[in-house]
Amino acid sequence: MQVHQRRVLGLGRGSRAERNIIRTKTKIVRMLVIVFVTFSLTWLPLYVVGLRLLFVASDGISAGERTTLKKYVLPVAQWLGAANSAVNPFIYCYFSASFRSAIRQVLCREPRNSGAPAAAAQPGDG
To answer: Where do the domains of the chain lie?
Structure first.
């Protein structure tokens, strides 16, 4: 798989640095493909239901089916589409060590002045 080709001074053909660059690019493309497929699979049901309700004539769909689609299937399809936003961070964490590190740093962050004495009075503490 060829992602992009350019010449960088100091990188010999087959060098360790070039192999690392190719490996990184391949991982990025793989991650983007997974994100795209996940996006498509989570949003497709909503659009299929919407198009079914919109373009199928009233006589082509029974009242019971229309009610079932609107009352039960449509909310589930909307939830599934919205759930895509919750899935993406897990995909990024799986494929990117730097993303995992940044998330860990944000979630497990210690106060900046952990060894300093108590902070001065804040405005409004009056």
So the answer is: 16-107
Please spell the DSSP secondary structure of the chain, one letter per residue: --------TT--TT-HHHHHHHHHHHHHHHHHHHHHHHHHHHHHHHHHHHHHHHHS-GGGS-HHHHHHIIIIIHHHHHHHHHHHHHHHHHHHHHH-HHHHHHHHHHHTPPPTTTTSPPPPPPTT--
* Chain mean position to CA 64: 36
Asked if the model's pLDDT at residue 80 lies above 50, the reply is: yes
pLDDT at 57: 67
Alpha-carbon gap, residue 85 to 99, rounded angstroms: 16
Token duo for residue 34: 């997974």
**pTM for this predicted structure:** 0.66
Q: Which residues contact residue 4 at a Cβ distance below 8 angstroms, ignoring those fewer than 6 apart?
A: 25
